[in-house]
Amino acid sequence: MIFQKTKQILIFLAFLVFYLSGSLLLQTATVSRIPVLPRAICFVIGAVLVVLFVWSIIKVIRRRQPDFGILPINFRNGRKALWILGMWGLAVLLLMIAGMFIGIIRFIITGKATPEVSQNQHAIMQMANNASWQSLVILVLVLVVVAPLCEELLFRGLFLDYFDSHKYWWPGPVASGIAFGLMHVVLQKWAWTSLLDAVPYIALGIVLAYTYKHSGRISNSMAVHFMQNSLSSIYLVATYVMQHH
After folding, report:
1. pLDDT digits over 16-53, tens only?
2. Residue 175 near residue 163, CB atoms below 8 Å
3. CA–CA distance, 220 with 76 (Å, rounded to integer)
């Protein structure tokens, strides 16, 4: 049992590194100060890694769940479509509450009203503001396509397959949310605020895990993740347009 769990943890961590490598290479391809050729190489290698990641992680999940797949969402079923929209609305609400909570805690501790965005979000905004329009397109694709696809397969598909509790309903989704939140702050400059930065991502991760576990469809949590990242991307594009025109 211990050997099996250790093996599953190592497999999960290997896929996490796999995904982060592809994602970081794609993000590097958006940095305008880097010459065109190295950026193009980063883009090609990053795209190949993402494709291999998706193919291999689905293959691993299917060893235990032969019927697992990214099934299409039936938007003709109005009740299911509204339920997905409701999950997205819940995610937006929890993110707003988490943002206010973080702002209050920081003000109490530091006495300063600090921005209610994480270092991860701030870094993405900086990349977008300094990017060319071609680089901005790549960045938006990473946010609204690559991230929802890969992160749902990793933190909902594989994580819950390996570590979900068969006795209790909530420990798996909560653990998935915590892992998801820590992943978004692990590469930033570490400080006590790093744990606060993780709170909104943890809240989002729990909603996404609930969406997947309740519906049994990974495509549903991908849809919620896609809508949330699309909302953030609209803000990035709008900010870019205002600054460059």
Report:
1. 999 999 999 999 998 888 888 999 999 999 999 999 99
2. yes
3. 14
Give the type of residue at 217: R
Residue 220, CB half-sphere, CA atoms under 13 Å: how many?
22
Single-letter residue type at 85 = L
CA distance 88 to 224: 5
Collapsing DSSP to helix, strand or coil, 72 comes out as coil
**Side chain identity at residue 20, one-letter code:** L
The three-state secondary structure class of 21 is helix
Give residues with Cβ within 8 angstroms of 88, minimum separation 6.
223, 224, 227, 228
Whole-number Å distance between alpha carbons of 107 and 101: 10
> What's the pTM?
0.91
Question: Considering only CA atoms, which of 210, 159, 149, 165 is closest in space to residue 180?
Answer: 159
